[in-house]
Amino acid sequence: MSKLASAVRAAPHPAFARRGVSHAVFVGACALCFAASAAATIIGSASMAAMGGTPMPGGWTMSTLWTRMCGQTWAEVAASFIGMWIVMMVAMMLPSLVPMLWRYREAVGGARQARAGWLTVLVAVGYFVVWTALGFVVFALGAASAALAMRVPALARAVPGALGMVVLIAGALQFTEWKARQLECCRNAPGRCRKLPADARTAWRHGLRLGLHCGCCCAGLTAILLVAGVMDLRAMAVVTTAITGERLLPGSKRVAQAIGTVVVGAGMVLIAQAAGRG
Fold this sequence. Notes:
It contains 10 helices and 2 strands, in the order H-H-E-E-H-H-H-H-H-H-H-H. It has helices spanning 2-10, 14-51, 74-107, 113-151, 153-173, 177-187, 200-217, 219-228, 233-248, 252-277, and strands at residues 53-56, 60-63.
């Protein structure tokens, strides 16, 4: 009997066993989503690279993302951009989003496993709806800027210097208290000890809130991606690493400032290169 009692005490509690299975399923699903979005992003990037771009005054090349091809409507161009933007953002943001999704799942731990899973999916959908809305804004601004640059050669020549200033400002933003607050919201949402109602409305609003905080927190780094090339794989890899690092590594404020130092230096180099061409 004593051996049987010891074996029972040593056996894992059913709740812990279920939690382990749930965690494995969660991680597996996130890994599959990341793999699929990364593959789609690589294919889209290769397709855009094959299409080339338009040489512009000032020594830069305008991507075909912002212009209509022969026979295309603006609705088709926008739909193509938004499709690529969504899969790209899933690939870029999912590594830093996964811990927040898991904390949410634990915050609704009183719900059944299946319901908690679907609510977590709803949080993720709300999060990426915010990024999709941002994609529409980015496309509108990019297309309008491209059209203006094609009509005004003097403006086109000023673009390299302006892009360098954007990078410089994005780097400086990494040192602000505003950035630190947004980063803290992203790292700790929801709080580890906080319990949330297990209902769809709360999940949806939580996902939207996460997306808004994340969009603000990543504003500077996202701007760098737009400057470097929206579908440039190297730029995506660097920005994804920076976003994930400042969210997950210890000492987030110091990590953000280290990233900012590198970005400020890159901005100064770009401005100097633009001045040299001028």
